Amino acid sequence: MAVQPTKPHLRQLIDEIVTIKLEPSNKTFYIHKGLLCHHSSVFRAMMEHDWKEKQEGIVTLKDEDHGTFERFMLWLYFGKVFDNDAGETIETVSGKQLVDCYLLADRRDVPAMQNYIIDTILRKSQATRSLHCGLQRYVWGNTPEQSHLRSLFVDSMVLRGDIAAAFKDENEKDTYDKSYIVDVLIRKYTNPELIPWDELYKRRCDYHIHNEKVPSCTV
User: Fold this and answer.
1) pLDDT (tens digit, 9 = 90+) per residue, 155-164?
2) What is the pLDDT of residues 43-56, one digit of tens each?
3) Which of 139, 92, 84 is nearest to 114 (CA)?
4) DSSP H helical segments within the chain, as ranges?
5) Tens digit of each residue's pLDDT (9 = 90 or more) over 4-55
6) Cα(63)–Cα(194) distance, rounded to whole angstroms?
7) What is the mean pLDDT of residues 119-136?
8) Is the peptide bond before 196 cis (omega within 30 degrees of 0)?
9) How far apart are CA 36 and CA 18, in angstroms?
10) How much is the average pLDDT of 203-216?
């Protein structure tokens, strides 16, 4: 069972509208305040304290990609980050787009969305039994050391088996961040007992974030 956003009370869904402005793209989004604040402690702090955002009902975000924010809105209202009306499916959404959604959720503290992205990445990787090649350096350059996304990438690499051969692969070696290689080797030799790849999706809760709004999974 995929992790679904905790549904807020209906009264939270039909409250006032908040205006979100992105810079420098100059894109504007309109979101129900209660829904936004329910999922994000960052937005909740902006709107509940006596800050400029609360007084004006306008939040300006700098350096936020509008395409990624559109996917965030899709997730808020429909529980997914791909637009079926536009012909998108889980297969057509790229690994980079999913990682960008995870990073946005991390910046804005939206743990339920982070968990959803983990599940979606794992679902996409079932056929190939590997995560998206070429993204390791990008993930390590944009996440903290204790990131659950990093843990998933590390475990996925260890499960591939022949790590030395993978790191020597001419098609892949330039995509690996040095810190990533160190993390993989530490994981391999300090905790070699790993579940089979077929069991990884069933254990996806190991890579989730849980709190009072995002309870533990039932899988």
Assistant:
1) 888 877 666 6
2) 988 888 756 666 67
3) 139
4) 10-13, 33-39, 41-48, 52-56, 66-78, 95-107, 111-125, 136-140, 148-159, 163-168, 178-190, 197-200
5) 555 656 565 667 888 999 988 889 999 998 889 889 999 988 888 756 666 6
6) 38
7) 79
8) no
9) 9
10) 83
- Residue 19 pairs with which residues in a beta bridge? 30, 58
Pair of tokens at residue 81: 């980050």
pTM: 0.86
Cα angle for residues 96, 94, 79 (degrees, 5° grid)? 100
Spatial separation of the C-alpha atoms in residues 159 and 195, rounded to whole Å: 8
For residue 199, the tally of other CB atoms under 10 A from its CB is 10
Instruction: Say if CB 96 and CB 117 are below 8 A apart.
Output: no
Q: Got the DSSP string for 151-177?
A: HHHHHHHHHTS-HHHHHH-TTTGGG--
